Amino acid sequence: MTEIVFIVEESQDGGYFAKAIGEGIITQADSLPELREMIKDAVKCHFDNPDEVPKIAHLHVTRDEVFAL
User: Fold this and answer.
1) Where are the domains of the chain?
2) pTM, whole model, 2 decimals?
3) Residue 20: CB partners within 8 Å, gap ≥ 6?
């Protein structure tokens, strides 16, 4: 595997929540720079074999917005 994709959502309490597609990796952080570091750590911990660790992470940042009509 050369890359891994994460769906990133803004938390209602502030900060960000990330979940990998196709892998059991979930993490959260207060800021996007901190989330990137948390994702790096989580990915390294998830894969037993260092050769299996993806080289690239794609972050798809989404935002849920509600407004009155």
Assistant:
1) 3-62
2) 0.85
3) 4, 5, 6, 26, 43, 46
Domain 3-62: CATH class, spelled out: alpha beta
Q: Which residue has the tokens 């209602």?
A: 12
Tell me the backbone φ, ψ of residue 40, rounded to 5 degrees: -55, -50
27 membership: H or E segment, kind and range: strand 26-29
| Ramachandran category for residue 23: left, alpha or beta (phi over 0 → left; psi -120 to 50 → alpha) | beta
Rg, the chain, Cα only: 13
Nearest-5° angle of CA 13, CA 15, CA 17? Answer: 100
Alpha carbon distance 40, 27 (integer Å): 10
Tell me the pLDDT tens digit for each residue of 22-66: 999 999 999 999 999 999 999 999 998 989 999 999 999 998 778
